[in-house]
Task: structure prediction
Amino acid sequence: MDSTAKSDAWRADRDHFLHPYTDFTTFQDSGSQVVSHGDAMYIVDEAGRSYLDGIAGLWCVNLGHGRSEIAQAMGDQAQQLGYFNTFGHSTNTPAALLARQLAERTPGDLNHVFFTTGGSTANDTAIRLAHYYFNRLGKPKKKKILARNGGYHGSTYFAAALTGIHGIHYGFDRIAEDIVHHLSAANCYRRPEGMDEAQFCDFLIDEARHRIEQLGADNIAAFIAEPVMGAGGVLVAPEGYHRRMAEVCQQNDILYIADEVVTGFGRLGHWFASEDRFGHVPDILITAKGLSSGYCPIGAAVFSERMYEVISKPQGPGGVLSHGFTYSGHPVSCAAALKSIELYEREDIFGKVRDTGPYLQQQLKRLSRHDVVGDIRGDHLMAGVELVSDRDAKRNFPPDLAAAEVVFGRARDYGVIVRPVGDTIILSPPLIISREQVDTLVDSLDQAIEDVS
Ligand code: PLP
Result:
């Protein structure tokens, strides 16, 4: 490719921007697609080509692109107070108001909000404070964490340690292997042969009980799970799984951490999925992404009253809760989040998702006409289409064929952005998507799969 025909931004990016999650095999040749602006469901690249955003940026731009009201709220806040720290007894108005708004919308008695810079730092916070909580209760042995294969919890060192996607660890060191223990993924498509979904659920619960027995409940602090696994391939657990896991945790004095970074803020048609979709209230709830509709970096770990009582107990002279980020409660991020919450409510966005979500899932079933489509799954506006080279054997393609990557490329030629992860094509559009735009998304994906079949 002749890079002289490319823009200055394209060259600067290729030469200096070390991109996250990037395969560098062809990076120097092909560089990046420079996205220059966005409008509602569409993004536009610097060549002026417009694409239907089928992934909400990265499961986050829930209210769609180019929302002037959010931009205005951020600008006004930046002018009024761009930053001041929230350590100790300082605060700022948007952070305080957002904490209350979150407490009012998170389930049960999850009333105490620790602000972070994103999902990874919120998960790190949850683990650090879970350990701190048990230390303060006089149970310092409770350190181990149960996570799941296929789970994604972020890229800070500990969030990566929680992550159970094997490819992500390739070439990296693993830490905390004595602390983090992975259970099986709740992958209904690849459940053991001969089991129905109910039996698979029993199997997963038995496995968890057994592992707790092996490790000793006295040594385990927490269990972390996404309500629907996202980057692991959009895996929806069998009916009753989360509720039963919450019971197992309660019986063993293990904290349940719900990582709702993707599922929170309406993707499954409700503020949060834990209670409204899956019938349980976690001890810690993690949110990010849709919290500010992706307009500003922000995350939060929200703690129960029971935990707060212990965490906030005075430690005596010199003892403080020594945890926090410079940008915990950043006023501009909090202003973006407050405006997002206002828009979610005013426009009844989650009500719309309860219509377009099932419609997307139903339309996607059409893709089963292709032999290469092994499984179609998801919940509301979170969907995964897994490609296989052999449907009966559920065999994936050899990695060098990068089948989902090829489909992604074709879909982009047709003007829609989807996300290839392993052999699964992920869809997570902005929540403002219309039924007609769902049709366009599915039609283009259908054509892209047809082309490569
Ligand atoms: N948890 C889940 C479920 C996620 O999907 C992600 C990111 O995609 C994270 C945590 C990490 O969030 P961040 O990238 O904001 O650190």
In short: The longest strand covers residues 110-116.
